[in-house]
Structures are given as C-alpha cells and as structure tokens.
Amino acid sequence: MSERQDEDPRIVDRRASTLPESEGAAADPPADSPEALAKQLADETEKAQAYLANWQRAAADYQNYKRRVEQEREDMARLASAALIINVLPILDDLERALHSVDSHLAGLTWVDGIRLIHRKFHAVLEMNGVMEIEADGADFDPNIHEAVAFGEGEEGKVISVVQKGYTLNGRVLRPAMVVLGKPREQGQ
Predict the structure, then answer these.
(1) Whether this model's pTM surpasses 0.85
(2) Residue 152 is part of which domain span?
(3) Helix crossing, 110-128 with 34-100: angle to 10°?
C-alpha cells in the first residue's frame, strides 16, 4: 500500500475558524455592539413599516368592501322599489281613467267620493316614497322625459296633450310621459 493510504485521515472541524480575524474575511460585529444594534433596529423598523403598509392596505380594502356592499344593498332596495312601482302604475292609470269617466249624476255619491279619497291616498303614498308625476301638458318636448306617440296641430316642439302620464322615482325616470307633440299646420291644406 501507498504511504498516503496508511495515514489516518485528518478530521477538520469547519465550524470553528482557525484564522485570526485580521487574516480572514471581516466577521460580523459582536451582537451587543452599537453597529449591530443599529442594523438590527433598521431591519426591524423596515419590517414594521412593511407590516403597517400591509395593515393599512387591508383596512382600506375592507372599507372599500363595506362601501361597495352598502351601495349594492341600496341599489337592490331601489330596484325592488322601482319594479314594484312600475307594476303598480298601470293600476293607478286605470283608477284615474275610471274616475274621469264617472257620470256627473254619480259624482256626489259617497262610494265615488270614497274612491276619489283612495286615489288621493295612493298618490300621497307614492309621493312619500319619491315618486313624482312628470308635468308634460303644455311643456317643451324633452326626449329624456317624454315619448312622442303622435303629432297634432299646435305650437311646434310643445306638448299639446298627454296620452299616458309619466313618473320619476327620486329624480330618475321610471316611465316617460307619452305625449302628442305639436306640429305647425301645413300651408297647402
């Protein structure tokens, strides 16, 4: 056998450094030195700032979520109210047509007066909930709130009669007023 194989292998402890500090790479300062404490403080301050920024972002996200949920809840309530009112408006139209067609000799009867009172209460309840009638008769035509269904002789651009009343809910059009629009008379006729 060769001489090298006969020798005992050397065990080297790599955990401990055998080189003095001046000969090897620069070692970290001792844990209790001011430089080490300053570095540790800077690291912890940086972590704290990151945690604070994450917490603030999470808090803002939560506030936005709460606001969005509340807005959606209000929109759902508004849509439910609007759907109910849109379905009730034809009943109101029928009630008004019935009251307008009452004969003059029936006008003084108590049941007719009772129906008129119900009609007024119905209007009052709708108004308390933000439903307003669109004033159209004699007004300038506005395509945002009026729907022209016919033309008649009259001042151009003016509503000359209302076919069906229109209504708004809190300023938003639920149903446009169906109107007859004025048109000047042609010269040849």
Answers:
(1) no
(2) 130-189
(3) 160
The answer to whether residue 160 sits within a structural domain is: yes
Q: Please write the tens of the pLDDT for every residue from 117-146.
A: 999 999 999 999 889 999 988 899 999 999
CATH number of the domain enclosing 182: 2.30.22.10
Q: What is the pLDDT of residue 8?
A: 58
Asked, for residue 27, whether it belongs to a domain, the answer is no
Concatenated DSSP letters of the chain: --HHHHSPPPP--SSS--S-TTTSSPPPPPTTSHHHHHHHHHHHHHHHHHHHHHHHHHHHHHHHHHHHHHHHHHHHHHHHHHHHHHHHHHHHHHHHHHHHT--GGGTTSHHHHHHHHHHHHHHHHHHHTTEEEPP-TTSBP-TTTEEEEEEEESSTTBEEEEEE--EEETTEEEEPEEEEEEEPPPTT-
Q: List the structure tokens of 87.
A: 């379905």
pLDDT band, residue 157 (cuts 50/70/90):
confident
Q: What is the mean pLDDT of residues 110-115?
A: 88
